[in-house]
């Protein structure tokens, strides 16, 4: 009769009410387990409540000739030691546990849920008071307390189960508080408040529905726990008195006949067990857990055979004999699904910095991650090649890639605060790869770690080494991440939005640091960024990406000074970073429309749907042409537009080629 | 760290006080009286009144409460209304029985559950589904039913283990061990299921963390990512579930003790509840709470050792 921890709660509470997790009733019932569970629960409840009308025998009716009988035509489930019909007794006995367990659930949620909503709404002080009180409740041994209640008030099952509900409400509160807090942090709740909805209405209309899944999961689990406890109490003799049947006492009875009549324990135990299993399965089905549990393992597929280039943007960048990294025709796709990146080609020479730039969703991060073979599960490279120092990284086994990672190519990720393991000290996280990469002992590794930290501009290296990630600021954490990336003395650094999560002043420091590293160590760097300022600041070369493909590439100076692709022009016109000495434009241009999602890319130029200059010829496939000496541009009208000296109009309203679509990102002054 | 421990100590004392207050009020809210319980059903009302007076039942409630607290601090839990024995001495014999069952079952649940949960999270596929489904069934089974099934199979059919009864360790260590085996296995079936689910979910969550990608990008060997970094991350929920497990087993051992005729704390609680032996009831609640509180404090220390954020707090 252990009062179980409400275990699934942690899972669900981790991502409360995210849209994918909110399922309708029909969704739950579509899972075979969920349907069976709901069906069995319904059957047991209906059969138990109606038992007095359909049961073949009275509960006390003895058939002394047929004591301890096995199932037969007269007694479908057999008989007990007094020859009473098990079928009749089991379902008559069901009413009390099925109803009183519901009482426990109602009481526990009736107390725990409002308290959680209040604590989440009223802020930390109220929350702390309520939480302390519930912590005391949680620490009380509830089973023993229930016995004390029975000792005092006697066997009154419904009251006892209500008391259990009070005790368990502390656990319900704890789970619900986490969910309610995270729901309240979402913007629409604030919006509702600003709109003047009262606190009760905000809770009922906005907060509770988002918690519905978690509530349903918890309630179903708690119901199962309640059933076990009622039955357990009856097993101990704290249940209905003979001859009235109870599940617990029938099993107690069976335990004394287990030697000569083992069948006796089967029907009652099975009905009880199945009912509890059904409650738990229903909880799992609501949480959608089983679906998630089925496919956790990380199994890497080898990339399928290379396919021909899909689009026109092919074979452009001429093979560069000096390039250390050369990506050709790279295609990345969801397995059995849409392409995410197609025909991407670029080359990188030693000691140079390449910027992959574009709006979010253009495939730049996927491209960068593919260089390390670190695509998310279910996404893989479908074609093309990644030539890295004479070997093709596409199609390598995980083991071969592991030898490259960190040692030859290293990654600096977007969010330094979560990129380090919170459970280990900085010293451990740095010395561990140092020892592996450089084959040195503990003391030497520690010395190298301190030196690396000083190299990335950390003055107080010893203190930082002793720190844990949560004790570092964002900028400090990013410096540690850069030091970590340098532990294997790689030749190529991939920096995925290295400054996006940082304060503006810290951003400049990190960029300066990266620039200094390139200068001092001869590293090559691929920087992924949506920020043209970052690109202008540290990149030698740039590849502008749009909708999964490179639309323009070349040296950073050439591309930024004389952009030939309308998309690059539009990006520059929308960029608020204005170089010194240039007059601030009257208004920043917005680019009308949005990036088309993977799978719905038009043939020909993918920017055509949003381009001021789009014509019919843009909508059928065409090849890219060389541009900017080492790069290319993928625009069929590029020459024409250059000759006509037209460029992206910052104010599309007055433009001759104004598209019919309306701007989505508001232009600002 | 010290502030954290001090706060937990205050919580612990508060919890014990709450247990005493609740059980004390509960006992005094009833319409029966200790005199009536002690003298049985044949006593005249006059004798019951006299007996209550002698037991100090009619003194003001606060006086009785603080007297009880004073005795409690001295380790005196009063005497049983039924047989007049010292409750403290009786419970002192019983706590080791319950503690050893709870401890063994928790350890076994931990080992088995972690192995199963980690296997499910790492291997995935059909094996993971089997473990998940199996643990879902196992944690739904009523312990008393599982216990009887095991007795039937292990004791009656196979004759490997004794069916019921308890042999004190001092009398026969081997007999003591075998007498605890079926109860411990019974409790482990549900316990391991809960631990397996927690370990599985925790490890899968850990492997989806951003810092695991950093480790992969650094070419860290997969075994190190799984069994050093991810397992350490998942250890927090697993440890707290193990703690809850031990507490639940300690407080919830009443059924298993009843089923296997083990002279533990739960059996005393059941007997006291059945006979309305008020001082014994309060004593059982207080002792169980004390044990729970001590375990919680130990758990806090383990969590602090595992989690640098807690240590720094």
Automatic annotation (TrEMBL), chain A:
Please list the residue ranges annotated as the ABC transporter domain: 325-572
List the subcellular locations.
Answer: Cell membrane; Membrane
Stated membrane topology is:
Multi-pass membrane protein; Peripheral membrane protein
Query: Can you name a GO cellular component term?
Result: plasma membrane
InterPro entries assigned to the protein according to its UniProt record, in alphabetical order = AAA+_ATPase (IPR003593), ABC_Ni/Peptide_Import (IPR050388), ABC_transporter-like_ATP-bd (IPR003439), ABC_transporter-like_CS (IPR017871), MetI-like (IPR000515), MetI-like_sf (IPR035906), Oligopep_ABC_C (IPR013563), P-loop_NTPase (IPR027417)
Mind listing the UniProt keywords for this protein, alphabetically? ATP-binding, Cell membrane, Membrane, Nucleotide-binding, Transmembrane, Transmembrane helix, Transport
Per the UniProt record, one Pfam family is ABC_tran
Q: Name one GO molecular function term.
A: ATP hydrolysis activity
Q: What SMART domains does the annotation carry? A: AAA
What are the TM regions of this chain, as residue ranges?
35-54, 98-120, 132-153, 159-177, 220-241, 261-279
* Predominant localisation class: membrane
What are the BP-aspect GO terms? Answer: peptide transport; transmembrane transport
UniProt domain ABC transmembrane type-1: residue ranges: 94-283
Similarity section: Belongs to the binding-protein-dependent transport system permease family. Belongs to the ABC transporter superfamily.
Quote the protein name from its UniProt record. Peptide ABC transporter ATPase
Tell me the organism.
Answer: Modestobacter caceresii
From TrEMBL, chain B:
Annotated TM spans? 101-122, 134-155, 175-196, 233-260, 280-306
Q: Which residues form the ABC transmembrane type-1 domain?
A: 95-303
Name of the protein this chain belongs to: ABC transporter permease
**Topological relation to the membrane, as annotated:** Multi-pass membrane protein
Q: Quote the cellular component terms of the Gene Ontology held in the record.
A: plasma membrane
Q: Which InterPro entries match?
A: BPD_transp_1_N, MetI-like, MetI-like_sf
Is Transmembrane helix included in the keywords of this UniProt record?
yes
Instruction: List GO molecular-function terms, semicolon-separated.
Output: dipeptide transmembrane transporter activity
Matching entries from Pfam families are given as: BPD_transp_1, BPD_transp_1_N
Asked whether the keyword Lipid metabolism is assigned, the reply is no
Q: Which residues form the signal peptide?
A: none
Annotated family: Belongs to the binding-protein-dependent transport system permease family.
Q: Which organism is it from?
A: Modestobacter caceresii
Q: Where in the cell is it found?
A: Cell membrane
What are the entry keywords? Cell membrane, Membrane, Transmembrane, Transmembrane helix, Transport
């Amino acid at each position: 009769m252990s009062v179980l921890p409400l275990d699934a709660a942690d899972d669900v509470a981790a991502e409360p009410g995210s849209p994918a997790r909110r399922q309708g009733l029909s969704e739950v019932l579509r899972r075979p387990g969920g349907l069976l569970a709901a069906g069995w629960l319904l059957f047991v409840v209906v059969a138990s409540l109606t038992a007095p009308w359909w049961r073949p025998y009275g509960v006390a009716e003895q058939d002394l000739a047929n004591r301890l009988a096995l199932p037969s035509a007269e007694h479908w489930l057999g008989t007990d030691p007094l020859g009473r019909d098990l079928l009749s007794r089991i379902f008559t006995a069901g009413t009390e546990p099925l109803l009183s367990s519901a009482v426990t659930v109602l009481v526990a949620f009736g107390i725990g849920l409002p308290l959680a909503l209040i604590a989440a709404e009223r802020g930390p002080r109220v929350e702390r008071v309520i939480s302390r009180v519930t912590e005391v409740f949680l620490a009380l041994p509830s089973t023993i307390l229930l016995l004390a209640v029975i000792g005092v008030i006697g066997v009154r099952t419904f009251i006892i189960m209500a008391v259990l509900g009070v005790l368990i409400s502390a656990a319900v509160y704890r789970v619900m508080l986490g969910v309610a807090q995270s729901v309240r942090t979402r913007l629409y709740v604030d919006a509702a408040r600003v709109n003047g909805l009262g606190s009760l209405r905000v809770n009922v209309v906005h907060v509770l529905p988002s918690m519905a899944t978690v509530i349903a999961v918890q309630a179903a689990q708690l119901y199962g726990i309640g059933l076990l406890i009622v039955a357990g109490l009856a097993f101990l003799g704290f249940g209905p008195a003979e001859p009235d049947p109870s599940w617990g006492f029938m099993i107690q009875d069976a335990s004394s006949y287990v030697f000569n009549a083992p069948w006796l324990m089967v029907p009652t135990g099975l009905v009880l067990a199945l009912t509890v299993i059904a409650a738990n399965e229903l909880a799992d089905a609501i949480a959608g857990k089983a679906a998630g549990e089925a496919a956790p393992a990380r199994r890497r597929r080898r990339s399928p055979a290379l396919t021909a280039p899909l689009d026109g943007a092919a074979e452009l960048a001429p093979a560069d004999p000096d390039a250390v990294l050369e990506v050709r025709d790279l295609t990345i796709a969801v397995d059995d699904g849409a392409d995410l990146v197609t025909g991407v080609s670029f080359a990188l020479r030693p000691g140079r910095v390449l910027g992959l730039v574009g709006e979010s969703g253009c495939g730049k991060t996927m491209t960068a991650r593919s260089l390390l073979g670190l695509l998310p599960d279910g996404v893989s490279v479908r074609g093309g090649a990644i030539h890295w120092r004479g070997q093709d990284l596409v199609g390598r086994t995980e083991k071969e890639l592991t030898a490259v990672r960190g040692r030859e190519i290293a990654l600096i990720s977007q969010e330094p605060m979560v990129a380090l393991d919170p459970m280990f000290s900085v010293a451990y996280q740095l010395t561990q790869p140092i020892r592996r990469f450089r084959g040195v002992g503990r003391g030497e590794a520690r010395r190298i770690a301190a030196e690396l930290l000083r190299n990335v501009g950390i003055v107080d290296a010893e203190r930082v080494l002793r720190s844990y990630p949560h004790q570092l600021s964002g900028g400090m954490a990013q410096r540690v991440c850069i030091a970590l990336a340098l532990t294997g003395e790689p030749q190529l650094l991939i920096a995925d939005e290295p400054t996006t999560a940082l304060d503006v002043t810290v951003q400049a420091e990190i960029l300066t640091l990266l620039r200094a590293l390139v200068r001092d160590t001869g590293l090559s760097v691929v920087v992924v960024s949506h920020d043209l300022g970052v690109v202008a600041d540290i990149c030698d070369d740039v590849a502008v990406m749009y909708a999964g493909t490179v639309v323009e590439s070349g040296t950073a100076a050439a591309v930024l000074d004389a952009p030939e692709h309308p998309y690059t022009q539009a990006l520059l016109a929308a960029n608020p970073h204005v170089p010194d000495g240039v007059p601030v434009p009257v208004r920043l241009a917005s680019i009308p429309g949005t990036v088309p999602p993977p799978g719905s890319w038009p043939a020909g130029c993918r920017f055509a749907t949003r381009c001021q200059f789009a014509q019919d010829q843009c909508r059928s496939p065409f090849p890219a042409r060389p541009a900017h000496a080492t790069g290319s541009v993928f625009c069929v009208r590029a020459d024409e537009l250059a000759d006509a000296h037209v460029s992206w109009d910052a104010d599309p309203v007055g433009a001759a080629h104004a598209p019919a679509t309306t701007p989505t990102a508001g232009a600002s002054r | 760290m010290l502030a954290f421990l001090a706060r937990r100590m205050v919580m612990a004392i508060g919890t014990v006080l709450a247990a005493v207050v609740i059980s004390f009020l509960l006992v005094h809210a009833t319409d029966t009286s200790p005199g009536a319980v002690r003298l049985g059903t044949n006593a005249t009302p006059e004798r019951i009144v006299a007996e209550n007076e002698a037991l100090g039942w009619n003194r003001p409630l606060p006086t009785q409460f603080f007297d009880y607290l004073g005795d409690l601090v001295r380790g005196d839990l009063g005497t049983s209304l039924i047989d007049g024995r010292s409750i403290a001495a009786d419970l002192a014999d019983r706590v080791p029985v319950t503690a050893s069952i709870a401890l063994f079952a928790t350890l076994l649940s931990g080992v088995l559950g972690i192995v199963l949960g980690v296997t499910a999270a790492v291997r995935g596929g059909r094996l993971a589904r089997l473990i998940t489904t199996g643990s879902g069934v196992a944690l739904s089974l009523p312990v008393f039913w599982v216990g009887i099934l095991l007795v039937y199979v292990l004791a009656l059919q196979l004759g490997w283990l004794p069916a019921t009864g308890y042999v004190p360790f001092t009398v026969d260590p081997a007999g003591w061990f075998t007498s605890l085996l079926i109860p411990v296995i019974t409790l482990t079936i549900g316990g391991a299921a809960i631990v397996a689910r927690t370990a599985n979910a925790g490890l899968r969550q850990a492997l989806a963390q951003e810092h695991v990608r950093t480790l992969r990008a650094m070419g860290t060997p997969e075994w190190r990512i799984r069994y050093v970094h991810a397992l350490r991350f998942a250890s927090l929920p697993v440890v707290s579930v193990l703690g809850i497990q031990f507490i639940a087993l300690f407080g919830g051992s009443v059924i298993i003790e009843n089923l296997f005729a083990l002279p533990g704390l739960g059996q005393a609680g059941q007997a006291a509840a059945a006979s309305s032996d008020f001082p014994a009831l309060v004593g059982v609640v207080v002792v169980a709470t004390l044990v729970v509180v001590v375990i919680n404090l130990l758990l806090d220390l383990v969590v602090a050792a595992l989690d640098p954020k807690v240590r720094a707090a």
